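RECORD TYPE: protein structure
NAME: ATP-binding cassette domain-containing protein
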Amino acid sequence: MSHISKFYAGVAALTDVSVEIRPGEVHAILGENGAGKSTLMNIASGSTPPSAGSILMNGESYDSLTPTLAGTLGVAIVHQHPAVLGDMTVEENLRVALPDSVFADGSNDEVARALLNGVGLDAHLKDRVETLTLAQKHLLEIAKAFARHPRLLILDEPTAPLGREAVDLLFGRVREAVAAGTSVVYITHRLAEVRELADRVTVLRDGRVRGTAVVDEITDDELLALIVGRKLESTFPPKSLLPLDTEVNFDVASISGPGFVDVSIAGRRGEIIGVAGVVGNGQSELLRALAGLENFEGEVSVGGTSYTPRDLLHRAAFMPADRHREGLMMSLSVRENAAVSALKKFTSTYLVSRSKELDAVSTSLTELSVKAPSLDAPVGALSGGNQQKVVISRALLSEPVLLIADEPTQGVDVGARVEIYRILREASESGIPVIIASSDAKELEGLCDRVIVMSRGHVVATLSGDQITEEIIVSAAVSSTTQSIQVGTGKSTVKRSTGVRRFLQGDYAPSALLVAVIILLGAYVLTQNPQYLGSFNIFSMLMTACGLGAIAMGQTIALLLGGIDLSVGPLAGFLVVIASYFINDGASTGTIVLGLALMVVAAIVVGLVNGVLIRYLKFTPIAATLTLYIALGGFAFLLRDTQGGYISTDFVTNLSSTVGPVPVAFIALVVIALVAEYFLRKRRWGWNLRAVGSNEESARSVGVSINRTVILGYILVSLFVFLGAVILMTQIGIGDPAAGPSYTLTSITAVVLGGTSLLGGRGTFIGSLLGAVLLTQVLNATTVLGLGSVFQYVFQGLLILVAAIVYSVARSRKRRAAEQL
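PREDICTED:
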């Protein structure tokens, strides 16, 4: 990479950076958060174009790369924040990110399982990725990178959330890759890993190269001086010097909860208590319980006062390991993130005082040396170390009785670590008990006054004083013979996902629920009216469901993309108006075909316009499709200001043919739904579609063409509306410019009932079709039972409300379950 520069709004992220990566070497890139390491590697992997400079790869020079081109050239990257798609399964994440050639040597499941085994990831292929832990997501990201057999492998903080066993396995795989000729770029904040793995090292500071050296020819002190621009006297602040008989101010007596049992801890004022152990042995669960996020049995007292889980939820401050997911609200500003837990302190007569808030937050962030463009800058614009300091600021501003930190320096540079250690020590000396969990035994050795070591949910060692060494901590953690416990019980078993749980967490559970509701409702109405299952009534219901079902299936695509299409209703009415000029009694076959062709063309144009407005003109999906909603309604009235143009009787008759009482059109729509479902689950088009809706940035990182996927998606939405319009012609029988708009909200209702997420990434065509059937059935039932039209709207509203509650509660439970894994 030669003379690379990158500017954002005139601010330099990289300036004249040149780095050479040799064949078959591990080249470490070091630097503080914000030094430009990730930006440089994003340029190398094609995610970010440079403002200046060039890239020489395999003898060819490039001004910039794309993710697809970089992958073709043999570049693979493991991002610091995993580019995984939470709404998709483990297997689907592999399939969408990897070329089909990776799966050519065996069955898809066998190849995928081998990829996971290669990095030590014990997860079911059908598990939804959002249920995985952060460490498992990193392992999945690593598996994707190794699967490509890359010529250049970029690892950006790959070990941050991993335990020692997983790190050793990763390093073994890296050495194997290097031996086979792969070049590896390794970004880390841990100098010990540089010593263990790297051949050469380059240091960045403030977006510039500060030096490149052979690892064996430079000392740690010299590296630290290059990284922070000054010599650090000591990484860790002095430990507590208070007398041994100082009063205990923190006491945990035999508490048990999800993932841990019979834990006791005691700490004195000024002490920092560490929680150690191999990742996944109950440390995080213990900290969440102490923060009041999980129930527990036993007693926790601070300063002589006993606290229940509910008390701790409001009085303890918790710094989670995954600051992006749990620690920060990324769409809010630095000020809002820092102040949110202490708003009561800033209120005057029930309103928040802006001046009090600004003064307190500004003072806190200044004391913590937070570097931010302004207090109102998005917190996502800060470096990882500064984001972590914002989390600490929020914790301290809330004046907690207990400060709990899970992996407080994960993904944080050396300079910021020193600041965080100082802050935690000062908090402890002020009288606030501080408890931290860390997978870095060296960190616990240098920072903590007392350490408990956990294994399989039990405390297997309590260390203090000279006992707190890396060797003793690691030895206690790995030599334990305790048995694992089941969450919440203490029985010896390992909790794993089951087929039933995966189904309930999957996309088809809402469809199964809809089938049950449809059957129960039908059974009840049948007891009230024996004619309910008559041939005419079945035909009427299913034929009505056809038109709505086709439009709802189109709406499903828009929602899967994370968007929405408000134009589907007016488009359906507009297409019927077009048909009313061509598909009439006495019209020739050619005229009818021409009319259908014009309908298809009009649908494609509308879908294309929607896609272009959203992707290239940067309209929001609501704004873009609302524009077409209004325009299409106007065009329909321009073509026909009143009803007119009767649809051909023969055409209606042919479309209304049946097999028994079931319309052929409904059977055809079911087949189309099944085919669409197959493509959604088993083909790259469907994976790309759901990837964009799940996480656009992650989808872009794995090589999905976002613009093409979105535009094609909206074209397909309009083509499904065309199918719906063809069915509507048989029901309306005449060109009516006012007939379509009502289908917009009704289609959204059907899709929501079918379980498709309004946030994108998950849903089914089958569920949307069933949602349309249920809505039609409800309307039919009110008529059969002799209820007024008011009840039609009441029942529809109740259905939407129940669906929203059921799916929201189910999803929140899945999220909580994932956090406990």
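COMMENT: The longest helix spans residues 789-820.
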